[in-house]
Amino acid sequence: MRSIGEVAAWLGVTASALRFWDERGLVSPARKSGARHYGEDDLHRLAMVKMLRDTGMLSLDEIAVLLRGPKHGDWRVAVQTRLSEIRAQQEKLDAAEKFLGHFLSCPQADPIKDCSQLRERTDRELKGAFDR
Known about the structure:
Multidrug-efflux Transporter Regulator, Chain: A, Domain 2, elongated, 132 residues
């Protein structure tokens, strides 16, 4: 059994974060004289919570769905939904990287004004906007 201070230091989170996760039902540590003590299974759950939080892509509610497991619905739906959202974001980021990268590689001193490729792109955007 580990104390809340030990576990917080090990995970690199605050003790208040661990208490909050406990209050949210993500973990249920044993209590001795009112103090939280974490066993092996608790440590694994907490490590999983931390890893999932570190992705920056899941809320605590979504993490709770995963932790509840198959007894409480299909957690796969939550994961698939989030993966779809991540893939859509990644496509936008890839397009933004390519678009902005062109500005850096364009030989024109003023790409917005003088770049023929950017002009063609804005022409397509304008045509689509005004031809509806």
